[in-house]
Amino acid sequence: MEQRNHKPNDSKEVAKDILRQFQKVKAKRAPFESLYQSVANVAGPQWFGFTGEPLHPTNVSPRVLDSTVRKATRVYRSGMLSGGCGPATRWFGLEFEDPDFNKWAMARRSGQEKAWLQRLENTYYADFWKAGFYQQKEIGFQQHGLFGWESMYLDESIAGAIRFNARPLHECYFDHDFNSVVDRHFRAFKMSARDMKAKWGEDKLPEDVRQKLRSAGGKDEEATFDVVHAVMPRADVEQSLDRNTMKFASYYLLNTGSDKGQVISEGGYEEMPYIVNRAYRLPGTPYSYSPGTEALADVQMINEMKRLLLEYGQLAIAPPLFVPDDGFMTSRISFNPRAINYYRKDGNSTANDIKPFELGGDPRFDMELFQNTQKDINEAFYVDLFLTVAQRIKNGSTPTATEITELAGERNFLLSPLLINLQVESFTPTFERMYAIKERRGEIPPVPRELVGRDFKAVYTSPLMKAQYEYKINNTLSTYADVAQIVSMTGDVSVWENFDNQQAARVIAEQRGMPQEVLRDLEDALQSMKQKAQAAAQQQTAAGMQQTLEKYPGLAKAPEDGSPAEMVLNGVRGATQ
Question: What is the Cβ-side half-sphere exposure of residue 508, based on CA atoms within 13 angstroms?
Fold first, then answer.
């Protein structure tokens, strides 16, 4: 953990500078907060906080009657997790940046370069498991689907282990540089006096906090204070209390009470610890929109439609009644279920004069509109794509291999923007920061001499990522099928010389995510093919010789020593051995 403590003195000017930048970054999120809060209103009170305090998940608004968006969000987060970086599969591999060097290293008989990559890859997988990456990424994907972005904190715990933490979005504010790379992140959150003491020590805390800790019997130690954690390029800070040289400055400031603005701690990070992944980027702002914001109008409408349908059902089952009265007529008609409305009637009243209110209309039209709106919400969250195969099987139609391939291509087409941002803004900085942390801790396997100075990259092999390569594979296979038809029609097998069949097979295997350890070294494969070809030629020669001996029995007799016949026969025998 790179954060370093600092005793808070002479920090007012630094704090003012940081808080001034914080206000600028807050202003960029302000136009989106009412939109995000509207999404939270229908998605669940646990997501509140953009314009009010977060609530317990059970405190659902009585006006939220439909659960379509909550179910769609669960499918979205599960589909993105299992399809993009599922814990049950090996969803990435490592290879060298230079394609020629990578091909050379993969074909090396010794395999030490490939083995080094495999050992490093295994350490990544182990860290993801131990650090809670998959649990936190599931939360991140749910935020990503609802609000269009997530903020994942990647750092080291006090014990030194890598840890992931998906931060609540209502606490987070960020900005990006001219390359649209997130380089400033502020987190405004509440922290108890007891937790502040555990993190920084009592002597580092402002006087307001220490007073709570000194309360009789510790009754006030759970009192909370507003704290701001600011991370930004060190060059953006006009002054500094701590002369360290880390690329990103880190400040914890008190943001409440009489000590507001006091720096509690200053430190730094070599890499940005907050990894922000955005869904659909918007021009002119660091923030983005999402499936949740796209579906918001439909979600609000479907809740109103459900309310009206419920009212219609109540009126149909227990309609208001019209009852005759000889001397009095109500001035207002009540449309509440089971209401009684009196009306004037001259003469004697009978039971036939008591009649229900006729509703009129056709509720089937409302149900069709309701179902179409549900479909629109599910499409916004790609539910139809994540569940297409499962739904076809459920309906009794087993999809063929070709159909599954087509579905993968369709999913890739619609999810491409999300997958590209996921790779660029989430996975790449995650791998880079993890490698830097592991290198500083001495956890990188010893690097072979040939690899010094060589860059490597992650290649993503999860189902959704592999779908991006389906078109390339399909084009290769369809080309082979077309050429096979040409050979069948013309009988000209020489056209196959246009293709490197061995290389085509390896490309398809790699694109489909076959582990490198399963593929034979190319050099070994070529040697094996050469030996098999020689063996086949020898067998053919032996078979031909046997046929000749059977046709001409006299040749089976041993020739005279030193005769030309003996020399020819010895030569043939040598060719078959």
Answer: 13
Residue-wise DSSP of 463-506: HHHHHTTHHHHHHHHHHHHHHHHHHHHH--GGGGGGS-HHHHHH
**Cα 263 to Cα 232: distance, rounded to the nearest angstrom:** 15
* Contact status, residue 226 vs residue 277, Cβ threshold 8 Å: no
pLDDT tens for 289-333 read: 999 999 999 999 888 888 777 776 766 666 766 666 655 555 676
Q: Measuring CA to CA, which residue among 300, 277, 302 is closest to residue 290? A: 277
**What are the CB-based long-range contacts (under 8 Å, 24+) for 107-111?**
107/521, 107/522, 107/523, 108/521, 108/523, 109/521, 109/523, 109/524, 111/521
Other CB atoms within 10 A of residue 487 CB: 13
For residue 537, how many C-alpha atoms fall within 13 Å in the half-sphere facing its CB? 9
In sequence order, the 6+-apart residues with CB closer than 8 A to the CB of 129 are: 87
Decide: 374 and 302 in contact? Cβ < 8 Å. Answer: yes
Task: Please identify which residue in the block is written with the tokens 């019997």.
Answer: 217
pLDDT of residue 365: 55
Q: Tell which phi-psi region holds residue 179, choosing left (phi > 0), alpha (psi between -120 and 50) or beta.
A: alpha
Closest CA to 500 of 480, 518, 515, 484: 480
Q: Which amino acid is at 570?
A: N
Distance CA 160, CA 80 (A): 30
Tell me the Cα Rg of the chain.
36
Under 8 Å between Cβ of 55 and 68: no
pLDDT of residue 185: 97
HEC readout, 447-471: CCHHHCCCCEEEEECCHHHHHCCHH
Other CB atoms within 10 A of residue 272 CB: 22
Which residue is associated with the tokens 């690329």? Answer: 247
- Phi first, then psi: what are they for 264, rounded to 5°? -85, -40
Question: Is residue 419 within 8 Å of residue 84, measured between CB atoms?
Answer: yes
β-strand pairing of 340-344 with 172-176: unpaired
Tens-digit pLDDT profile for residues 121-148: 999 999 999 999 999 999 999 999 999 9
CA pair distance 284, 294, nearest whole angstrom: 19
Residue 163, H or E segment: strand 162-166
- CA 159 to centroid of chain Cα atoms: 28
CA atoms within 13 A on the CB side of 214: 9
Can you read off the two tokens belonging to residue 568?
A: 């020819």
CB count, 10 Å around CB of 120? 17
Torsion sign (Cα): 423, 448, 114, 443: negative
